[in-house]
Amino acid sequence: MLEKVELVSGATASKDIVPVLTHVNVQGEYLQATDGRITCCTPAPTDPALPGTPERPVNVPCKKLLQALRKAPKGATIKVSETQDGRLQLQAGRLRVRLPLSEEAFPGQDAPTAAVGIDGEALVQALQLARPFVAEDGSKPWATGVLMHPSGVVMATNNVTIVRVPCTALQADRPPVTVPVQWVDEVLRLQRLYGAPVAIEWGEAHVVAVWQDGTWLHAATVAEAWPDTAVSMVPDAPEDPATEGEPLADLRQAVALVTPFSPDEKAPVVELSERGAATAQGEGYAAGTTEAELVTPEGGAGYPPGRYRAEVLDRVLALADRVWLDRYPQPIPFAGPDGVVGLFVGVR
Question: What CATH number is given to the structural domain containing 206?
């Protein structure tokens, strides 16, 4: 039972502005939870079974139910019953917990009916690579999600970096859709716990991932669409020489070493040059401020000159195996394994 409740718990709301969204809905054979953006449904536990039927579905507070199940003595048999005053009672050894039940209408979703099999591992890998580049602010609503494109790519941007990731799991006969980052995060969480999905249902207004045991995760797509030219916004990797191999590994180390000593702790900037990598002085610089540099080894070539937000550069270097730093101050191309390509901008 604990595993099943934990599975759907990621779809519950964290705040009780709408109380029913913090509950698990029990309707006989299934448990369902939603925060109004994503909905997760899984086959209900049968031993013991929770109260609730298709004719009389009930809602149980998810957080308290999880606490009760986790506090149960190890190895104890859990007994479930409904009290005369309409509460759920869980008994495990000497522990008895009673939780309120609600029959309030639950804003759930119907099960998918047109899901098709996919290479779930390929989908998960693409989402993992794109996820760090999703925007956190809502200035461009479409950038707060991940574009799944029927040309076989997944894309993400935070308005400073944009990345295009090949994904063989996507179907050519489906429309391009932007899935909310909450759905992406939950797919990745469920993959870590239970493996990759095996099927997907995908339409203009919704997307549903389906797992082998019948668990499914639904989300309404982001209404604001990516630009029609999204896929072509990121060019293929250039053919001319790039920073790669040992110099790229040295750059990753340099950024990690000097960033903590930046004069601007809130938005550290790294400056690259033939001399090496150093913290940039920035607007708030004053004499005597903490700073650091990692000097190029004797005989080394250093780096093409440029200034970059440390966080942006760090995320790109975590993915890239080639970077064309000589393009600065123009958008800088980078490439990663398995056909991943992207662009990022430096600080002027």
Answer: 3.10.150.10
